[in-house]
Structures are given as structure tokens and as C-alpha cells.
Amino acid sequence: MEDLRDYFDLHASSWDEMLRYNERASDLLEVVSWFRLAEGDRVLDVGTGTGILLPLIRQAIGPKGMLVGFDFSFKMLEKAKLRQCPWGKILINATVESLPFQSGIFDQIICFSALPHFPNKLRALLEMVRVLKSGGDLYIAHLKSVEELNQFHRQIGDPVAHDLLPAPEKIWSLMRESGLKDISVVNQPGKFLAQGKKT
Q1: What residue ranges do the domains of the chain occupy?
Q2: Of residues 21 and 34, which shows the higher confidence score?
Q3: How much is the pTM?
């Protein structure tokens, strides 16, 4: 875990350029359109990294919403802090296995480009579901399919070579085991989206 934290800290300053996020504004807008965000929602951005989605999420939930981003990489959060975000944001340095929030406070939880990096994916999902309100939605999203993403991580090498996104049926099973209902999984070139509802 420390190797992974060091890796993200090391690459934080060049992360957006490395993943070409600055050239992909329309793709990021599309990602946010996948989520059923509403004015006034309380949203948790899990593994926010450099906060690339924060301004877009903030626009969707408006001034009455609450936006929290957390990441275990302090250097990534330093980058996220610099990101302009109307009506503000809250950034927290934490790990997904032990979220520093009371149960049932978020309307929506977004996990964008982060799940492969969690060693215990079921435990991570259980924690996310714990802090999700009844009736709230959890989203796992990537701008690559499972196959594309896993190949990309293998090409990068250590320490992320083995940080793989499970097969769609495994993701479905993990989400079900974590207590989510109405689960759907889309896996196609350039898009992975899994979503489920807490009842």
C-alpha cells in the first residue's frame, strides 16, 4: 500500500497530462452525465485523485449540494485543492477501507478510475455502502473497458501492474454482496459503468 501511495504522490504533478485529461473535457462531461446527480445532492468522490471531476459534479449539484472528495495520496489532494470549484468542496486524506464519515449521509457515491487500486474491493464497497443513504446510488466508472484498463495497467508496470478491474460478472457479484440492489454493469470500448442502489 505504501508503494502505491508513493507512486501516486510521485506522479501527482503530471497525472492529468499523463492521462490526457486536459484534452478530454467532453469525455469527462459525458462521464458525469452517466450519474443521476440532482440539485442539492450530497456526493462523495471516492479516490478523487487530482479532483478532475469535482468542478463538473459541483455544477450538477449546485450551491445547496455538498461535495466531498477523498484520496489516500496527500500530493494528489494538493492538486485537487488548486482546482477551481464553484460553491466549494471538502477534501479529506483517508483510505477507503475506513471512511471517516457517519453512516448514511451521502446521496450519491462516485468511484471514478479508482476501484482497481483498492486491495480489498469488497471491504471498500461495504464501506461505501455504509456511508450511502438508503435510496442512494453508487457508481463505479472508467473511460476504458475492463480489458482496456487492465492492459493499460499491465503496460505501466509496478506498482499498478496488478491493480486490475475485475470482470463485469465479478463486479456485479461484489456489489450484490455489499448490499446493493438494481445493479447494472456496462462494459464496452471506452466505457465501464457499474451502478447499484442501496435500499
Answers
A1: 2-198
A2: 34
A3: 0.90
